[in-house]
Amino acid sequence: MRRIILMFLANLFRLPYMLFKVFRMSRHRDIYSKEDCYAALHRMVRWANRGGRVTIAADGLEKLPAENGFIMYPNHQGMFDALALLEALDRPFSPIAKIETEHVPLLRPVLLMLDTEFMDRSDVRQSLGVITSVANRARRGENFVIFAEGTRSKKENEMLPFKPGAFKAATLSHAPIVPVAFVDCFIPFDRKHIKKVTVQAHILDPIPYDEYRDMNTREIAELVQSRIAAKIAEVTEN
Is the pTM here over 0.90, yes or no? Predict the structure, then answer.
């Protein structure tokens, strides 16, 4: 909470512009393209992170598929993960979010700008509909991020098991899977200090459909998680 307050205070003079921009763009998606919305959020997140004394050390961006229509699967360390990815990537993507977030006042317009898919995990039919929608959109060349743990781990740089169902969108769309390893992303919002901090976002080698086509979703989940775990171990042990 302290760092969130610092982010707001450091950008106080920009806040009226940022709020105006977010609410206007989210309400007029017929005027503003997804690229316009993403570019605006990308810029605002850089301001927020800088004001909060957080540096994003991202690598492997050159490994992202040249063509859009890929699905990123990161480990989920906390609320800051999304801000790290929004600053690191200059290419638009959409998340899958819990349906409860659709009604959070300040979060809702941001999620609308990202063309978020809202999932009600208590409703199997609705969840399947979201997965199908994501698969169809990925086939049309849209990029997505799915947190396969389902919730943040609360275990710092350790992970919870990846849920096989999270990979159904990839198998339906035949989209490249892009593992993403976050390191220290829990620090900005989970630690009760506002010291300067660097979080890491590592884009790993994409897994093309031909590599996972004969695997079931449990095997895919284990493969993706093992690659992320290996990267986390590599950078934290050095």
Answer: yes
